[in-house]
Amino acid sequence: MTTTETATIRVALVDDQQLVRAGFAMVIGSQPDMDVVVEAGDGAQALRLLGSHPVDVVLMDVRMPAMDGLAATAELTGAPGPAGVAPKVIILTTFDLDEYVLQAIKAGASGFLLKDAPPEEMLAAIRTVHRGDAVIAPSSTRRLIEHLADVLPDEQRTPPAVLESLTDREREVLVLMARGRSNTEIAGELFVAEATVKTHVGRVLAKLGARDRVQAVVVAYETGLVTPGS
């Protein structure tokens, strides 16, 4: 078994509202497979603490004093943490942040969580992002990406030419990833082995220069390969 399958998920909460952190900490602390190991009130404090505390998943607010969540996410995901691996970041947001949310994905965020999301959705998001190769979750992540696909200015979009290096099968896999399918579900739809799907996903990420599935899905929407509601 891997560490991901057996170890407690170490979570950091980064939000300038203490009541928000307290509420999240209470819910996360009630889970046998999770532990809140770091709390910070802004991005700068988070970077200082996370420099010496290994963390698996960070819940990161966007708008904070001193250093906002976008800048902190870029620094966190751009360099390995104390354990040699950069933590995964889930952005805490509201639905109307528009281009700021997309900037967070491009900075390395692996997902989103609406601040008023139910507790079970938050817990599912943490576990999903920690697994790394699972479905994009929670459902708000896909809704936000579709929303951004509508409001993003043309000059900020990824040009369709980046898809030219993908094979037809890799495009099929990317479309299914964008529709929220897991590797198992993609394998079933394409009538191939799950190991084959994992290989295709890895090649798609490499060719697109994407850190994870979320970034690859953003490219799928930006280039028009997938359209909102399709």
How do the helices and strands line up, and which of them pair or pack?
Elements: H1 3-6, E1 9-14, H2 18-29, E2 34-40, H3 43-50, E3 57-61, H4 69-78, E4 88-93, H5 99-107, E5 111-114, H6 119-131, H7 139-151, H8 168-178, H9 183-190, H10 194-208, H11 213-222
Parallel strand pairs: 1-2, 1-3, 3-4, 4-5
Helix pairs in contact: 3-4, 4-5, 8-10, 8-11, 9-10, 10-11
Modified residues (4-aspartylphosphate): 61
Keywords: DNA-binding, Phosphoprotein, Transcription, Transcription regulation
Domain HTH luxR-type: 159-224
Features:
five-stranded parallel β-sheet, Rossmann fold, 230 residues, single chain, 12% strand, alpha/beta, 11 helices, disordered N terminus
Write a structural description.
By secondary structure, this protein is an alpha/beta fold. It folds into two domains: 9-136, Response regulator (Rossmann fold); 147-223, Response regulator (Rossmann fold, 3-Layer(aba) Sandwich), CATH 3.40.50. It has helices at residues 3-6, 18-29, 43-50, 69-78, 99-107, 119-131, 139-151, 168-178, 183-190, 194-208, 213-222, and strands at 9-14, 34-40, 57-61, 88-93, 111-114. Helix 8 (168-178) crosses helix 10 (194-208) and helix 10 crosses helix 11 (213-222). The model is unreliable at 1-5 (pLDDT under 50).
